[in-house]
């Protein structure tokens, strides 16, 4: 049993004891679009265990996975209005709400997952979390969303030239569309659930995503070429409704904030485990994985994307500080 699983089990046990000692005075509802068992879902459960233990069972957290409380756009609005107390969301849907999130959603802004961790765990991450408050949200912690790479049904991609004219599904995001266009390919925004059939029928050549999503969606069955270019390493964020936050005492606010931070290493450990399982499964299925790729031309091709979205001195400074972080 890994450290994360051992810690998680201990937290759940202590939470059960705390709950048995006295019923919760406040139960916070937390939303997640991912299914039960997914690393982000389990991390918020672990956070709930810590909060219950540290408040002697006064405050509980109930997690609603699989978009039971709505898809991300709707759940964000409900959290702002206090209908939902906690929400785990990718930073992408926040791009038009909290401008600082646009920067960490840019292609190749992070050199690696480790670089992303160093940035988001430090003062820059704290600054971005604080930027949520004017929008009726309290930023608590950043989770991982993995690194996204291109996959397709036609051929292995070793260079930008290989992408020319190919059709790739992207999320319904202007940054994603502009990124694919800048690489000489054709971006096709469409819902996630339509991707498998669209690749199968040839309506698109491929898509882009992280290892676990490429696996659990079954896309590797119809798109046998995966290029590890890691063009996007977009963090995910756990936010709390400011209306709910303001109902807590300063002591309980500190407990909730610290429990959220303490859940991050648990989430990352679970994520690494899930990535390894997915990688092993995908390679065993005969997918050709391209790892020897020169990212420099891909990064240089993003210049017009950065020019379009990094338009203020504040955002330009943020980009420079992220790139300067070791």
CATH architecture of the largest domain: 3-Layer(aba) Sandwich
Helix content: 40-55%
Strand numbers in spatial order across the main sheet: 2-1-3-10-4
Order of helices and strands: HEHEHEHHHEEEHEHEHEEHHEHHH
What does the oligomeric state look like here? single chain
The total beta strand count reads: 11
Which residues sit in consecutive blocks of at least 5 with pLDDT less than 50? 17-21
Radius of gyration: 20 Å
Please describe the biggest sheet, giving its number of strands, its sense, and whether it closes into a barrel: 5 strands, mixed
Shape: globular
Structural class: alpha/beta
Under the CATH scheme, which class of the largest domain?
A: Alpha Beta
In CATH, what is the homologous superfamily of the largest domain? Bacterial extracellular solute-binding protein, family 7
N/C terminus separation: 32 Å
Question: What's the number of helices?
Answer: 14
Average pLDDT, rounded to a whole number, is 92
- CATH topology of the largest domain, anyone? D-Maltodextrin-Binding Protein, domain 2
What percent of residues are in strands? Answer: 15-25%
**How many separate domains make up the residues?**
2
């Amino acid at each position: 049993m890994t450290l994360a699983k051992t810690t998680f089990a201990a937290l759940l046990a202590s939470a059960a004891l705390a709950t048995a000692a006295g019923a919760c005075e406040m139960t916070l509802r937390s939303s997640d679009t991912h299914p039960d068992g997914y690393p982000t879902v389990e991390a918020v459960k672990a956070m709930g265990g810590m909060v219950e233990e540290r408040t002697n069972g006064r405050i509980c957290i109930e997690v609603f996975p699989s978009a039971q409380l709505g898809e991300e756009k709707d759940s964000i609005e409900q959290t702002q209005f206090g209908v939902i107390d906690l929400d785990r969301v990718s930073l992408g849907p926040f791009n038009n709400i909290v401008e600082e999130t646009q920067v960490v959603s840019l292609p190749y802004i992070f050199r690696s997952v480790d670089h992303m961790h160093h940035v988001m765990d430090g003062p820059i991450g704290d600054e971005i979390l604080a930027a949520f408050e004017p929008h009726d949200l309290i930023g608590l912690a950043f989770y991982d969303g993995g690194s996204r790479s291109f996959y397709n049904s036609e051929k292995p991609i070793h260079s930008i030239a290989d992408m020319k004219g190919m059709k790739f599904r992207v999320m319904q995001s202007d940054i994603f569309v502009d990124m694919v266009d800048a690489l000489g390919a054709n971006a096709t925004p469409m819902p996630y659930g339509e991707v498998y059939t669209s690749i199968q029928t040839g309506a698109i050549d491929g898509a882009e995503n992280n290892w676990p999503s490429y696996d659990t969606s079954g896309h590797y069955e119809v798109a046998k070429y995966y290029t590890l270019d890691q063009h996007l390493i977009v963090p995910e964020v756990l936010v709390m409704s400011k209306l709910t936050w303001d109902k807590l005492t300063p002591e309980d606010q500190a407990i909730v904030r610290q429990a959220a931070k303490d859940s991050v290493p648990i989430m990352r450990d679970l994520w690494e485990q899930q990535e390894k399982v997915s990688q092993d499964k995908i390679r065993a299925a005969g997918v050709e994985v391209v790892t020897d790729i020169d990212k420099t031309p891909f990064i240089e091709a993003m210049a017009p994307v950065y020019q379009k979205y990094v338009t203020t001195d504040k955002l330009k400074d943020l980009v420079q500080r992220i790139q300067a972080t070791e």
